[in-house]
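Final report, Chapter 2: Outcomes

The project's central promise was a pipeline that accepts a single protein chain and returns its three-dimensional structure in a standardized token representation, suitable for archiving and comparison. That pipeline is now operational. To close this chapter, we reproduce one record exactly as it appears in the project archive, with the input sequence first and the structure output second.
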Amino acid sequence: MDKLNTATQQDTLGDIGIRGAYVEPLKIIAAPGGPVLRMLRKDSPLLPKFADGFGEIYFSEIETGQIKAWKMHKEQNQLFTVPVGRIKIALYDARGASFTLGSLVVMELGRPDNYKLLRIPAGVWYGFQAMGDTPALICNLADMVHDPGECQRLPPKNDVIPFEF
């Protein structure tokens, strides 16, 4: 089981039904000229997995209506947030040793009402689609530098994941 700060976990984290995947509500702070969007604080219960530092932070833009699916990292854990636009994201647990094997979770992330931090654990397939009239922007904090040989991909329509965007 992942080592999370259980004192704050029950107060701030949402277990989404896949082992190791959680969401944490994020704060939007009103400010003159536009809001400040928090992504991560050092007291976040999602941060302990990244205690040895992080690999990289990058942004992924998804054009309106486009789908980016499916991807699975064998070792890399990720923290996703969507500060611009909205996405529909699906996670599928195909890990043989997981007690949530076969679980599928579909959720929306983005502003204004679903600004959250999503933890995607290694071994979980994920894909997403931009929703609405504008492109969406994902900020991804990964615990290791991207290695193309460390991940696997599937096309949006496949025989492994029981979901189509």
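Archive annotation: The mean pLDDT is 89.
This record, like all others produced under the grant, will remain available to the consortium after the project formally closes.
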